[in-house]
């Protein structure tokens, strides 16, 4: 249930011409042909399917005792470090689908390359003066005389929850824009060390650091109002639902005017949610896996509320229902993902 992203599909609201294969065009019109391919796109659910899914979730919705929930929450860092210690860089594949779904990450697709220098400069100047009073690991690094990693870049991307770099390295390989700088962070220090030890890690174009998204008081190594793009790929779902709004609101402050936040995550009634057994539920639609890591399953409305409460404007909010097929075992697996783009209002 953790790796829900292989072969993702959608092709909507492209903002520039990216010469890559377009996905999301294989539709199942004859149910008898279901095992002819490994996957089918934009599959409509019947009322019966949805009712069955709701019933399944309800059956396994009794939450664990509060003390057990607290244990999983307090040991989250330990569980994620354990995950990356075991799997290292073998679990996920590089997300080359990113440039189809999120052309903002591809070369010459800059949203803000020529954006409001006066406005963003004012924001940076204000932030530099404010941050003189701050302390922490990144304070001296980020705000000494206005200097911070990537301060001379013209297009800045931050991936939150970078894991071992399956988004970061495809971006660095594909986007040869000399003005690009990519920041990436993860809750797991083990994951960040794996990123830094990768031969493709280039400190001149990338800066990896450990960060807890849910700790809204912790400093980022980037001033507010300086990022063009923030990427959240299957990461917000790992937070406790009560911590999500503050985390998104904090991230939104990092965006330039016109900057965009990109999200791909688990949708309600995804196969992974329906597979959870009794004794795995922490709260409504929030579960703990066997390895101790946690996961939430969203609706479009929930995500819209999170982003708009952070004063971001909707660009895209789509649900992707995909039918994956195991032809050898004659099994069908229904995946549900949600893809969002929300932006900071332009000046």
UniProtKB/TrEMBL annotation:
Pfam families the record matches: Methyltransf_12
Boundaries of every Methyltransferase type domain copy: 158-260
Main location: cytoplasm
Record GO biological process: methylation; tRNA processing
Entry keywords, A to Z: Cytoplasm, Methyltransferase, S-adenosyl-L-methionine, Transferase, tRNA processing
EC number assigned by the record: 2.1.1.-
Cellular component aspect of the GO annotation: cytoplasm
GO MF term set: tRNA (cytidine-3-)-methyltransferase activity
Catalytic activity of the protein: cytidine(32) in tRNA(Thr) + S-adenosyl-L-methionine = N(3)-methylcytidine(32) in tRNA(Thr) + S-adenosyl-L-homocysteine + H(+); cytidine(32) in tRNA(Arg)(CCU) + S-adenosyl-L-methionine = N(3)-methylcytidine(32) in tRNA(Arg)(CCU) + S-adenosyl-L-homocysteine + H(+)
Location relative to the cell: Cytoplasm
Extent of Polar residues compositional bias: 123-133
Region listing for Disordered, in residue ranges: 110-147
Class of enzymatic activity (EC top level): transferase
Role this protein plays: S-adenosyl-L-methionine-dependent methyltransferase.
Family: Belongs to the methyltransferase superfamily. METL family.
Protein name: tRNA N(3)-cytidine methyltransferase
The organism of origin for this protein: Astatotilapia calliptera (Eastern happy)
């Amino acid at each position: 249930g953790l790796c829900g992203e292989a072969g993702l599909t959608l092709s909507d609201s492209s903002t520039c011409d990216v010469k890559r294969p377009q996905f999301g065009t294989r539709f199942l019109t004859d149910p008898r042909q279901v095992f002819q391919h490994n996957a089918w796109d934009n599959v409509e659910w019947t009322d019966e399917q949805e009712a069955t899914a709701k019933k399944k979730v309800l059956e396994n919705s009794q939450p664990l005792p509060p003390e057990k929930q607290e244990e999983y929450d307090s040991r989250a860092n330990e569980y994620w470090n354990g995950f990356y210690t075991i799997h290292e860089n073998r679990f996920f594949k590089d997300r080359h689908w990113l440039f189809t779904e999120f052309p903002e990450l591809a070369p010459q697709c800059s949203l803000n390359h020529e954006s409001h220098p006066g406005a963003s400069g004012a924001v940076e100047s204000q932030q530099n003066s404010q941050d003189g009073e701050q302390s922490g690991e990144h304070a001296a690094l980020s705000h000494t005389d206005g200097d911070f990693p990537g301060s001379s870049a013209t297009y800045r991307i931050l991936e939150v929850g970078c894991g071992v770099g399956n988004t970061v390295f495809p971006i660095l390989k594909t986007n040869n824009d000399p003005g690009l700088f990519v920041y990436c962070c993860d809750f797991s220090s083990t994951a960040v060390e794996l990123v830094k030890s990768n031969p493709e890690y280039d400190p001149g174009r990338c800066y990896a650091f450990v960060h807890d998204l849910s700790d809204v008081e912790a400093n980022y190594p980037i001033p507010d109002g300086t990022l063009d793009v923030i990427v959240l790929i299957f990461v917000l779902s790992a937070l406790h639902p009560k911590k999500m709004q503050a985390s998104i609101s904090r991230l939104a402050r990092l965006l330039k005017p016109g900057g965009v936040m990109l999200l791909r995550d688990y949708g309600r009634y995804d196969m992974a949610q329906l597979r959870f057994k009794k004794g795995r539920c922490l709260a409504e639609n929030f579960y703990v896996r066997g390895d101790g890591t946690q996961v939430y399953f969203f609706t479009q409305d929930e995500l819209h509320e999170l982003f708009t409460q952070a004063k971001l404007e909707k660009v895209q909010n789509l649900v992707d229902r995909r039918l994956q097929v195991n032809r050898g075992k004659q099994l069908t697996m229904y995946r549900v993902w949600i893809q969002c783009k929300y932006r900071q209002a332009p000046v």
